[in-house]
Amino acid sequence: MHWAHPEANDAIEERGTEHVVACGISPSGPIHYGNFREVATADLLNRAIQRSEAESDLIWISDDFDPLRKVYPFLPEDFEEHVGKPLSEVPDPDGCHDFYSRHFEEPFLETLPVLGVEPEVKRASEMYASGGYSDAVATALYRTDEIAAIIEEVTGRQLPKGWRPFNPICEECGRFADPAGDEYHCGHGHTGNLSEARGKLPWRVDWPARWKILGVTVEPFGKDHAASGGSYDTGRRIARQVFGYEPPHPVVYEQIGLKGEGEMSSSAGVAVTPRQLLRVMEPELMRFVIASTRPKKHIELDLGHGLPRLYDEVDRAEEAWRNDDPGVEATAFALSTVNDVDEMDLPFSHAVNAVQVDPDDPLKVLRRTHHSDHGPRVEGRLRRARNWVEDYAPESFLFSVQEETPDVELTGEQKRVLEAVAEAVERGGGGDEVQNAIYETGNSLDMALGDAFAAVYRALLGQDDGPRAGPFVAALDRDFVIKRFRDVAGTSDG
RNA sequence: GGGCUCGUAGCUCAGUCCGGCAGAGCAACUGGCUCUUAACCAGUAGGUCGAGGGUUCAAAUCCCUCCGAGCCCGCCA
Hints:
The protein is mainly alpha-helical. The chain folds into four domains: 1-130 and 254-341, HUPs (Rossmann fold), CATH 3.40.50; 167-200; 348-397, no CATH class; 412-489, Arc Repressor Mutant, subunit A, CATH 1.10.10. Helices cover 47% and strands 10% of the residues. The strands form five sheets. Strands 1-2-3 form a three-stranded parallel β-sheet. Strands 5-6-7 form a three-stranded antiparallel β-sheet, with no helix packed on it. β5 (178-180) and β6 form a beta hairpin. The N and C termini lie far apart (67 Å). The chain binds one RNA strand through α7, α8, α14, α18 and α19.
């Protein structure tokens, strides 16, 4: 059983057949694949609920009314002056959007439909500005003592004197200030009246308030919120006791790490955005990696050696899905589909070879090797293979067919291997025949087979190893191969 | 101090929610084969399921205690 279905069924048992699945992100920096796990998890739950014949909507909330916490490494130093202001009121560091949060939100939101996620988008700044939180703020302030008691009891910490469940924005400098009774004191010396100030609920109160305002019934969140005494612990009690709302069914998920670099974190500089990943991963694969892993399990994304394997895995799952296999892998793929996908027979590793054999026209290579050779999906996979070769492929996957005959020294035996291969190709032989010719010639000459294969790679690539020899030679232009081998072997007519 | 995850074959991990003969891939070994960007086929071997206790006709699986590793919370969100 795939994990999304028991979760969906639990939610339906707890809350009935009408659901709102919520997720959200604080756009304080580039929104990366680790953040996408939250949205993807929410989308998977949303789909699973719908597959169980219940109604469900998906909401994505931008926490763009949170303060800018510090000058992150990717910001200019003079952003110090904006620390403490709401993200929706800080300028765009690159100057291309109206303000800070939009700059990071937009590229992320643009990729969501490509990844098959189309949530209703809400923004905290707009919800506060339009009065959506008015009742909640009034309730929270009226019941300050109860909220304070819950937070102090659950977290075991002591709230300061004059604490209020409201973070006011200083009317003079535009930064969040500390409440002190019915007033607030800004760090820059201004004192104002709390009841007249703009502002927001602190996170631990904001979250439960939002559940009620939006009718949230299911919500995935990171394990940082899930720790004992964390914000879900306080939130569930505040929701029930203060707002009279049953908290959503929680689904806790783990972080995503980049192999060799640690957990993704935009402030630590370890972050790959969905847009960057789309250069090398198909949308279905980006979903599948998340869908096929239980949320509480850590994901370690390996874009190097691991990527061809991931493609093989998702291709297998896709095939199982096409065969109506009821297993988890097929279900994970079913939940990962984005658009109708053409059936295709082109392993990623072969695409990687094809774009290197003939960078100008890899389709020609695919025709020679009898793989799928047309359609948007093939083109997409070739494009991603090319990007992978440029950005992530380990050395051992790289080669380049030398346009000019390389100046290589070969033994007499090796030259006879090349001549034998040339003859096999001349006779119209394919991969098997080429592989055979190398093997048999090498054996009949009583030479080390490694040297026989090395001759082929040296003549074509100028290096001692390369892709599996038979199919590789067969993927090349026939006349080119014959000429090259005879040139190198010194058996050409000219 | 608290929470979560992990601990199962040499390695990487399924299986644990919902108890029912201990599993897969890779590695090893045997045989075959066309040594190839982690080649292919057939077969063999490989285990105190981290430790201990409990529940049960039956425990890798449920409960309790403990050990080890990692992450998170105990500022803000």
